[in-house]
Amino acid sequence: MNFIVMITIFIYLNIMFGVNSGKMQPIIIVHGGAGDIPESRINGKLEGVKEAVRVGYKILSSGGSALDSVEAAVVSMENDEYFNAGYGSVLNVRGEVEMEASIMCGKNLDVGAVTLIRDFKHPISIAHKVLTDSPHSLLGGEGAKIFALDKGFETVPPESLISENAKHALESSKNEFGRTEIGIKGDVGTVGAVAIDSNGHIAVATSTGGMSGKAVGRIGDTPQIGSGTYADDQVGGVSTTGHGESILKCCVAHSIIKYMGGGKDASTATTLAIQEMTKRLNNTAGAITLSKSGDVGVYFSSNRMAWAYVKNNKIYYGIDHDQTLVTDLNEK
Ligand code: ASP
Predict the structure, then answer these.
(1) Where is the active site (predicted)?
(2) CA distance 133 to 151
(3) Which of 38, 99, 118, 245 is 20 to 30 A away from residue 328, measured at CA?
(4) How many CB atoms lie within 10 A of CB 220?
């Protein structure tokens, strides 16, 4: 009798408050950018995405929040010259770094985003501060710098963020802006992370240097909520990468969320939204998705996209179409 009463109370709490004493199995998925990635960059990117999920998963498995996990995973890739974010960001037409980032909390739909960041190492950490410490959602340029300095972030010389690869990519991309396939030889990719923590909360973070040879002051999809990033505990989370002007016209991240809200699974929703954008605008993109129940979606219409996720102590990862490699979480 007592047992039946307990079960009834448990089911009631679950329905009313989403109380789940069994706790959610935490998951993190990351991407390292969609594009025409040359062979010479494949290994570096795969190592980078695997390292990012290890860093993010460590936080989740010790009870940390999805927000802290996605920030840490993105910071790891912002430090890595194999990715187009933080150090190693691609350059605008004047040869300068201008970075952007966004982060979203699926519990309460709080957001933080920054754009036109020139002299800070970790745009995603400033975006996270905008989320927690500002009444605003998106800060850009001088205003973002004033905010960051006020919150104790330290500037770095802008040249210290420029890699040899980014200089080379700018040379190659001159006269090619507007091409249909972003990411020509030597180019590198935007980064993103989506996580669910043990309390079932979802967070998403995305960070980029934009596109090689972009105009000064160009703002892409990454800092725009609903285009580059979206998280909603009631549905799931998405981070996108690819041709920014196309992604933002189709609000790709939110389109995937809408498809999932309408009953599609994470993989179908991701595939549909990216294929629609590609068909309509003839440009390529990719996305990573988690549904609120932990289903994974990975899809890209570009030649390649590096991705990795951790589930049940294994890392699943890949970069080419129809490729899924597996390794143990602790194996380096
Ligand atoms: N979406 C980014 C942008 O257009 C580029 C990328 O994902 O690589 O700024």
Answers:
(1) 190 (nucleophile)
(2) 9
(3) 38
(4) 23
Ligand 1 midpoint to CA 211 (Å): 6
Calculate what percentage of the chain has a pLDDT beyond 70.
Answer: 89
pLDDT in tens, 83-136: 999 999 999 999 999 999 999 999 999 999 999 999 999 999 999 999 999 999
Cα distances (Å, whole numbers) of residue 271 to 20, 243, 265, 285: 31, 16, 10, 11
Q: Considering the domain 27-328, what is its CATH architecture? A: 4-Layer Sandwich (3.60)
Beta strands in 118-257 (DSSP E): 138-140, 191-196, 202-208, 229-232, 236-242
Which of these is catalytic: 115, 190, 229, 270?
A: 190
The answer, yes or no, to whether residue 17 has pLDDT greater than 50, is no
Give the pLDDT band of residue 20 (cuts 50, 70, 90). very low
What confidence tens digit (pLDDT) does each residue in 212-241 have?
999 999 999 999 999 999 999 999 999 999
Q: Report pTM.
A: 0.91
CB 204 within 8 A of CB 237: yes
Cβ < 6 A, ligand 1 pocket: 33, 84, 182, 189-190, 208, 210-211, 220-222, 241-242, 244, 247
The preferred substitution site among 173, 222, 240, 246 for testing ligand 1, maximizing ligand atoms within 8 Å of CB, is 222
Torsion angle of the four alpha carbons 125, 131, 132, 134, in this order, in degrees rounded to the nearest 10: 110
Cβ–Cβ under 8 Å, residues 228 and 113: no
180 catalytic per annotation: no
How far is 240 from 230, CA to CA, in rounded Å?
9
What is the distance between the alpha carbons of residues 226 and 253, in angstroms, rounded to a whole number? Answer: 5
Atom of ligand 1 nearest to the CA of 242: 7
CA distance 93 to 187: 14
User: Could you state, in order of their start, the residue ranges of all structural domains in the chain?
Assistant: 27-328
Residue 83: strand, helix, or coil: strand
